[in-house]
């Protein structure tokens, strides 16, 4: 009787040590609203936050692979929706956002109706637009 109990405990402990590759920033994962909290240019110490930023914007990620990006600049609100995919690699998670048509709020180096966002170790999203002289943008959930 002792042997089956010991085997059961051993298997339970072994199973609890399995690797979990899921991406989570909190109990709801990366789904939901991510708000722009900081922007900076290529000039050192040029970071702005809050109401001082040139515009306000957010992404809203749905569980079905769709998202909405919304920006307010000079009291003008612009929104666009599209689809996204995630890629989990050893150095982190990236999001590839695909838009159905062009919009002035797409922050891309390539002009191909796509944006790339990176989930950082401190649970913020950052853009890749700054790789080609666009602003560096940071988002928090």
UniProtKB/TrEMBL annotation:
It comes from the Bacteria. This is Lipocalin-like domain-containing protein. It comes from Flavobacterium sinopsychrotolerans. The lineage of its organism: Bacteria, Pseudomonadati, Bacteroidota, Flavobacteriia, Flavobacteriales.
């Amino acid at each position: 009787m002792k042997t089956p109990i010991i085997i059961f405990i051993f298997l339970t402990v072994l199973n609890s040590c399995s690797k979990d590759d899921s991406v989570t920033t909190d109990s709801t994962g990366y789904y939901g609203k991510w708000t722009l909290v900081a922007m900076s240019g290529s000039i050192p110490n040029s970071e702005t936050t809050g109401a001082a930023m040139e515009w306000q914007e957010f992404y809203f990620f749905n569980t079905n692979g769709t998202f909405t990006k919304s920006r307010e600049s000079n009291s003008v609100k612009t929104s666009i929706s599209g689809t996204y995919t995630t890629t989990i690699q050893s150095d982190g998670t990236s999001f590839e956002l695909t838009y159905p048509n062009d919009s002035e709020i797409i922050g891309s180096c390539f002009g191909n109706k796509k944006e790339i966002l990176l989930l950082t170790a401190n649970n913020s999203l950052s853009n890749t637009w700054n790789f080609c002289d666009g602003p560096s943008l940071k988002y928090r959930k």
